[in-house]
């Protein structure tokens, strides 16, 4: 079964991770733009980050047979720096039209401030202008209220719910998101957010429709193999193969295809690997024989 | 020539893509001449709008385009690359000469891979191409193979406008990346004693490390010593 990780921050992962992900069946992923663990101080570093997602990271993934797509945004945390926020919002339109950008995201609330709401709303407007879906981050603190406020903002601004993937759900937020008509993401984490047994229970209750799972792996303690591990947990719990495939492959493909930039045909085939390719003078290889698929 | 090549290319592309893609290209080119923002958006969307298949022109079509350099280049260009050149020529026509070079530099800086490829392939066919030498030299430092090949292979720009030092670095970089030197236009005319020395030194380093010397090294050094 082909697997899709619809939320993973590969810029902070190693080539060992890429190898393990490919070996576990992951053939496509979406890397959302988020923060880097500490606040940035210049809009220019956002621009270079966007270019890295559109260039180097796409190339790096391809070296291991994985298709790399991204979502771009000003994230909720850094929306709270007003000078930076306006500069980043101003440069986003320059990048949203580019190939491989399959949504605006992550956007949403973190501390649930007025500044976050202003940037969230402004980027919903941009998503409509560029015909893109949105990836909505829900806060870790006061999560249920933050999710309710996110769904309310989508409704008030007339954003089509089928174009919104609301992420990091729990037992308490999933029913709200499904009822609103949005897609629901679940970040399977080693100790926080959601875990495999709880995810199995949610699927047993709600079925597979509009439900996605992701690893949300980044620079913190996280596991880039959580999608294959959750697929295995669902299989061991006796869930049908069709349900597992819907959650771990078809749903992310359907959701992000709404961008018109996922290029289904290309995604369905494993890209040919040619590790002889170089990027910016650096090969990902360090002396070992390059793998070349012919 | 610089006025007529984009229109000839536009006619070829429009004749080969579906009608809605052809009207998109015509309308976007007209818009690009009036608005730099409209141009930037069309520039990024061109791959999805026009497709990325090689143009693979029949020789009769190439003959009609005239100019050897352009004809040679177009054989290897893809539909989106051709379309992007049409849009860029239109955008430049709407700008003063002082505004043109900054736009070209900006497109390179903010471009993703295919956008950069298209830009580099068109450089030699833009008005006053010597203005863009800094962009072209910078592209050689970027070893993303598709980008590096766009400036190094089948491109008349480096031989025409690079300094000796920049041209030599490009040839050495091509050797490092196993790009066949036969694809470097003007190598025979531009190679000199300094390039032969650099390639010899590289060959010596490879031999000392017990590695193979690329066969193409002889294209630079062999004839000169003979």
Question: What does the largest sheet of chain A look like?
Answer: 8 strands, parallel
Low-confidence stretches of chain B: none
Largest interface: A-B, 21 and 19 residues
Order of strands side by side in the largest beta sheet of chain A? Answer: 1-2-3-4-5-6-7-8
Shape of chain B: elongated
Number of helices of chain A: 12
In short:
The complex is a heterodimer of chains A (294) and B (226). Chain A has 294 residues and is an alpha/beta fold.
Topology record:
The complex is a heterodimer of chains A (294) and B (226).
Chain A: E1 3-5, H1 15-23, E2 26-32, H2 43-54, H3 56-62, E3 67-72, H4 82-91, H5 93-96, E4 101-108, H6 114-129, E5 134-137, H7 143-156, E6 164-166, H8 174-179, E7 183-187, H9 196-206, E8 211-214, H10 226-236, H11 241-257, H12 264-268
Parallel strand pairs in A: 1-2, 2-3, 3-4, 4-5, 5-6, 6-7, 7-8
Helix pairs in contact in A: 2-4, 9-10, 10-11
Chain B: H1 4-16, H2 19-32, H3 36-50, H4 59-65, H5 68-76, H6 79-93, H7 97-109, H8 113-122, H9 133-141, H10 145-152, H11 157-161, H12 164-176, H13 187-190, H14 193-208, H15 217-225
Task: Explain what this protein looks like in three dimensions.
The complex is a heterodimer of chains A (294) and B (226). By secondary structure, chain A is of the alpha/beta class. Chain A has one domain: Metal-dependent hydrolases (TIM Barrel, Alpha-Beta Barrel). Chain A is built from 12 helices and 8 strands. In chain A, helix 7 links the parallel strand 5 and strand 6. Chain A is globular and about 50 Å long. The two termini of chain A are 22 Å apart. Chain B folds into 2 domains: 127 residues, no CATH class; 96 residues, no CATH class. Chain B contains 15 helices and no strands. The longest helix of chain B is centred in the C-terminal third of the chain and has 16 residues. The mean pLDDT of chain B is 89. The interface between A and B is medium-sized, with 21 and 19 residues.
